[in-house]
Amino acid sequence: MNAPRWPLRRARDVIWGGGVIAYPTEAVFGLGCDPLNARAVARIFAIKQRDAAKGLILIASGIVQLEPFMQLDDTMRKALLKTWPGPVTWVVPAAPGVPEYLSGGRDTLAVRVTAHPVARALCETTGLALISTSANLSGHSPLRSPPAVRRLLGNKVDYVVPGAVGGLKKPTEIRDARTGQVLRAG
């Protein structure tokens, strides 16, 4: 499944302009933006009606896009690379200076190198790691299609990227990079 180029360029322009997009991921539609644009991230928290203390996930097309946000030792790096690209999110030590709105004020950050073709192409087209949080109101079921996103979120999102979610029925597994412990089963 290759992503058409024009929606990716449109999404890139929205993200580079400080906007918020909705896009397909492994299991659900996600909301995304430039993780270093504090205003765009604040919009995502407002759209979802989510507490900023919960932090957010960053996705990327490769580990290089995530390196500025993480502090990994060799053991952690090897564990991550065994599961990526793929549907495993890792909680890793955050690099110094990572904004609190990304980490929820903790010393860790959740990250994933996605294998979903559209999400991966978005990261490649923008040249950025992206915010990835489910497209829904906090506490409600995640949305799984562009029409569902448009119905619920309407004009709160600047662009909805066309495409289908991956085959996962549940959100991605989450593991702790320091201990290897599974924090959320996938």
Task: Tell me about this structure.
- The chain has 186 residues and is an alpha/beta fold.
- It has seven helices and nine strands.
- Helix 1 crosses helix 6 (117-126).
- The longest helix has 12 residues, at 5-16.
- It is globular.
- Ends distance: 23 Å
Superfamily (CATH H level) name: DHBP synthase
Largest sheet: 9 strands, mixed
CA-based shape: globular
CATH class: Alpha Beta
Overall radius of gyration:
15 Å
Helix content: 25-40%
Total strands: the figure is 9
Give the structure's gist in a few sentences.
This protein is an alpha/beta fold.
Features:
nine-stranded mixed beta sheet; globular; about 190 residues; alpha/beta; 9 strands; DHBP synthase
Layout of SSEs?
Elements: H1 5-16, E1 21-24, E2 29-32, H2 38-48, E3 57-60, H3 63-66, H4 74-83, E4 88-93, H5 100-103, E5 108-113, H6 117-126, E6 130-134, H7 146-153, E7 159-160, E8 173-176, E9 182-184
Parallel strand pairs: 1-7, 3-5, 4-8
Antiparallel strand pairs: 1-2, 2-6, 3-6, 4-5, 8-9
Helix pairs in contact: 1-6
